[in-house]
Structures are given as structure tokens and as C-alpha cells.
TrEMBL record:
It is found in: Cell membrane. Residues 13-460 form the Major facilitator superfamily (MFS) profile domain. It comes from the Bacteria. Signal peptide: none annotated. PANTHER family: BLR6921 PROTEIN, MAJOR FACILITATOR SUPERFAMILY MULTIDRUG TRANSPORTER MFSC. This is MFS transporter. Its main location: membrane. It comes from Rhizobium jaguaris. The lineage of its organism: Bacteria, Pseudomonadati, Pseudomonadota, Alphaproteobacteria, Hyphomicrobiales.
Length: 466
């Protein structure tokens, strides 16, 4: 095979993996603007309506660590294909739901499938592209499609709702099916392991997976029923017990599901912390801004979704460039400037909402937010994966994606609590909620600034972890 054919094959593989990554991220937010139509047709109570969104996040966040480790043990391509097939089937089934339970079940299954697809896709990308500029560019494109999928999910959901709210559930299926047809021809075969296959850590899986599920459920339920509800604090207490038990199991297991040495890698741990907080701040802002544009300004679901398009376009075009810069020059400064721009965007929104024309408010805040997101998201992925060996890339990817999902749930619950409590103090709930997000973003900027300044050579990283 000549070099041009090799580049062509790598390009097709990247396109396929990016398509899957876009679908996984898009489904987090695409159904949000369709909720009023869903409630009207299915007669869902307001308390159960939010689970149409949250069920996907519950499955996605709860199974990511398991998905990453399963991909490392049983083959990245094999796991990618099977989970993408389940995602396609659940998407099609979503078009035929006739009640709240069947809708929530379809969303939950899609989230679980995404939890296996996402880390396998990122691990496949790392194996297709070698070290250097090729990997940096590929990672930048991959990061930009994930970020754009999340940011543009509301735009696509608003457009699909014009046809039917069911289209928001089904529209990913054709892309997933096409990817399944092409994947066997462009993705590298899984490496055959020499020696005996590692034993799967069932004790670890049976503690961390329900632990994360209960944790995500608890923080999500807090947004709907409050922190005092038994379902909220009971789930969080049970999650804490299971996670502590998991750490005990992993410290004694000869082949743990998550080697505790992973948490001692400075760049990975710092990147995960920034991922959780930065994504959470954005999700909190998106929640409040969406309510403001629909409730106060009176925009339609489509117009509200379209308000986030400028940020998504910035991410699509700028993230690959920033990923290359991060790969070549380090990620700490990029993270710092990126989150700093987001903090400025949130502060601008707080000071300007209701004071200037809403279209100007959206344009300026989304421009700042989009450029900041384009700096931060790929920098986090580059930093997290810079000192991880290929046989642990699926696990590291699962840890990173879990940080994004769980951080989003925690901070959304906190922002919702501020939003709900603000009127009792005589505050504007939209201003108070966004001010909370702005203050948090300023703190995240400081945290990003104290991160590792230089990349650790891969060989040294392996030795340090041993």
C-alpha cells in the first residue's frame, strides 16, 4: 500500500470515528428543545420529563469506566462495532415509543451504548495515527466534532422538531448504520494478545458501575427534587459506599479494572478535574440561557437552539488548530486562556442580559464562549492522553469522558439550586444562576493555570507509573 493510500485510509477512519463521536455528543443535548412537544403527546408529568434528557446522561456517565476497560481487554474495534450497532437500534426504537417508560428506556440504552463507543473510538484514533503532528491534527478534528456535537445538538434538535419530536431520537440512526457498513474496511483489526488473556475485574466492575450510576442519578435527581429528597441523598450515600469499596478492591486486585496509579498521573488528573468543572459550567449556563431565551425573550425552540450555533461553528473550525498548538507547545496556557474567555463570556452575559439587544447579547457571548471552548476542549484531551500507553488508552478515555458527564451533572444541579433559590432572596434567577457560573469559571481559570507546564515523554511516563 503506497503512502497516498495509507493517508486515504487514515482519513476515512478519522471521518468514521468523528461521526460516531459527533453522534454520542449530540444526543446529550438534542432532545432538550423537544421536551414541550414530548410532554404534550405522551402526557408526561413535569417530574418525569427531565429524565428524557437525564436517562442518556445516566447511562453514558455510569458505564464509561466499564466501557473503556472492556474496550482495552476485548478489542477496541470489536467493542466499537457492537456498541455502535446497539446505538443505531436504540435510535430506531426511539421513533416508536408510546409512553414515558419506553422513551426513558430507549434513551438509557443509547447512553449505555455511547459509553462503550466513545472510549473505543478515541483509542482507535490513537492507534491509527502515530506520534507527532498527524496525531495532533487528528485529535483536534476528533475533539472539535465532539464539542460541536454537544454545542450544535440543540440546533439540530430544534430543526428536527419542526418535522416531529421523534426525529430527534431517530436522526442519528442512518449515520450510525452507514458507519457500521464502512467500519470493517477502514478501522484497524484488533491486535492479537500474546500469552493468556488478562482476567476481567468483575469485583471492580460490580462496584464502580452501580456506584457511578447512583452518583449520576443522585446529582441529576437533585436538580428535579432537591437535595433533601430521599432518592437524592440516599443514592449519593450508596454511591459513596460503593466507590470506597471499589478503591479498596482495586488496591488489592492483581489486575485491576482501574489501576490506582492512573490517578497519580499529574497531567491526566489535572485534565480530568478541568474537564469536569469546565463542562459543568457550560452545561449550567446552557440550561439557564435556554430558559431565558424561551421564557423571557419568547423565542421558539428552533430559534433558541440556533442561538448556540455561532459557538458551535467556532469550535468546529478552531479546535483542530488549537489541538495542534497544544500538542506542540503545551496545553496549560491554552486551557487557562480558554476557560478565562468563557468566564468573560458569562460575566458579559450577567452584565448585559436585559440591557442590550438579545441578538447582540447572543452574538458576543457565543463568540467568546465558542473560542474559549475551542481552546479548552481539545487541550484537555491532548493533556489527558499524553502520558497513557495504548493498552490503557480506552480506560483513560473513559475516565475523561466520565469527568465531562459527571461534572456536567453536578454543576447543573448546583446551578439549578441557585436558580430556584434566587427569587426568595429577591434576586433575578437568570442573573444569579449565570453569576454563579461566572464565579465558578473564574476559579477554574486559576486551577487551569497551576497545571503541569510541560509534557512528560511517553517512555518516562510508563516508567513512572510502574
Amino acid at each position: 500500500m503506497n503512502s497516498s493510500q495509507t493517508r486515504s485510509g487514515a482519513g476515512l477512519a478519522l471521518l468514521l470515528l468523528c461521526a460516531a463521536n459527533f453522534l454520542d455528543a449530540m444526543d446529550v443535548s438534542t432532545i432538550g428543545v423537544a421536551l414541550p412537544a414530548i410532554q404534550k403527546e405522551l402526557g408526561m408529568q413535569a417530574t418525569s420529563l427531565q429524565w428524557a434528557v437525564s436517562a442518556y446522561v445516566l447511562g453514558y456517565g455510569g458505564f464509561l469506566l466499564l466501557g473503556g476497560r472492556v474496550a482495552d481487554l476485548f478489542g477496541h474495534r470489536r467493542v466499537f462495532l457492537w456498541s455502535l450497532g446497539v446505538f443505531a437500534a436504540a435510535s430506531i426504537a426511539g421513533g416508536f415509543v408510546d409512553s414515558a417508560p419506553t422513551l426513558i428506556a430507549a434513551r438509557l440504552i443509547k447512553g449505555i451504548a455511547a459509553a462503550f463507543t466513545a472510549p473505543a473510538a478515541l483509542a482507535l484514533l490513537l492507534s491509527v495515527f502515530g506520534e507527532g503532528s498527524a496525531r495532533a491534527k487528528a485529535l483536534g478534528v476528533f475533539s472539535s466534532t465532539g464539542a460541536a456535537g454537544f454545542v450544535l445538538g440543540m440546533v439540530l434538535g430544534g430543526a428536527a422538531t419542526i418535522v416531529s419530536w421523534r426525529a430527534t431520537l431517530v436522526m442519528g440512526a442512518p449515520v450510525a448504520i452507514l458507519a457500521l457498513i464502512v467500519a470493517p474496511f477502514v478501522l484497524p483489526a484488533d491486535h492479537k494478545r500474546s500469552g493468556s488473556r488478562p482476567h476481567f475485574d468483575w469485583a471492580g466492575a460490580l462496584t464502580i458501575t452501580p456506584g457511578l450510576l447512583l452518583f449520576v442519578f443522585g446529582v441529576t435527581n437533585a436538580a428535579a427534587d432537591g437535595w433533601q429528597a430521599f432518592a437524592t441523598w440516599g443514592s449519593l450515600v450508596a454511591a459513596l459506599v460503593l466507590i470506597l469499596l471499589f478503591l479498596l478492591v482495586e488496591s488489592r486486585h492483581h489486575d485491576p479494572m482501574v489501576p490506582l496509579a492512573m490517578f497519580r498521573r499529574a497531567r491526566l488528573s489535572h485534565a480530568n478535574a478541568i474537564a469536569a468543572l469546565f463542562q459543568g459550567a457550560y452545561v449550567g449556563f446552557q440550561f439557564i440561557a435556554t430558559l431565558y431565551y424561551q421564557t423571557v425573550v419568547g423565542w421558539s425552540a428552533f430559534a433558541t437552539g440556533f442561538a448556540f450555533a455561532l459557538g458551535g461553528v467556532c469550535v468546529m473550525f478552531l479546535a483542530p488548530r488549537f489541538a495542534t498548538i497544544g500538542q506542540n507547545r503545551g496545553t496549560t496556557l491554552l486551557m487557562t486562556f480558554g476557560v478565562g474567555l468563557q468566564a468573560i463570556s458569562y460575566l458579559f452575559w450577567v452584565l448585559s442580559a436585559g440591557q442590550i439587544d438579545t441578538i447582540v447579547l447572543v452574538a458576543i457571548s457565543q463568540l467568546l464562549l465558542g473560542v474559549g471552548y475551542a481552546m479548552t476542549y481539545p487541550s484537555i484531551q491532548v493533556a489527558a492522553l499524553s502520558d497513557v500507553s495504548e493498552d490503557q488508552s480506552g480506560l483513560a478515555s473513559g475516565m475523561l469522558f466520565a469527568s465531562f458527564q459527571i461534572g456536567g451533572g453536578i454543576i447543573l444541579a448546583a446551578a439549578s439550586a441557585v436558580f430556584s433559590a434566587a427569587p426568595s432572596f429577591g434576586w433575578n434567577p437568570y442573573i444569579a444562576g449565570t453569576a454563579f457560573v461566572a464565579i465558578l469559571a473564574a476559579a477554574i481559570t486559576l486551577l487551569a493555570a497551576v497545571g503541569p507546564r510541560t509534557s512528560t515523554p511517553r517512555s518516562d511516563a510508563y516508567q513512572a507509573a510502574e
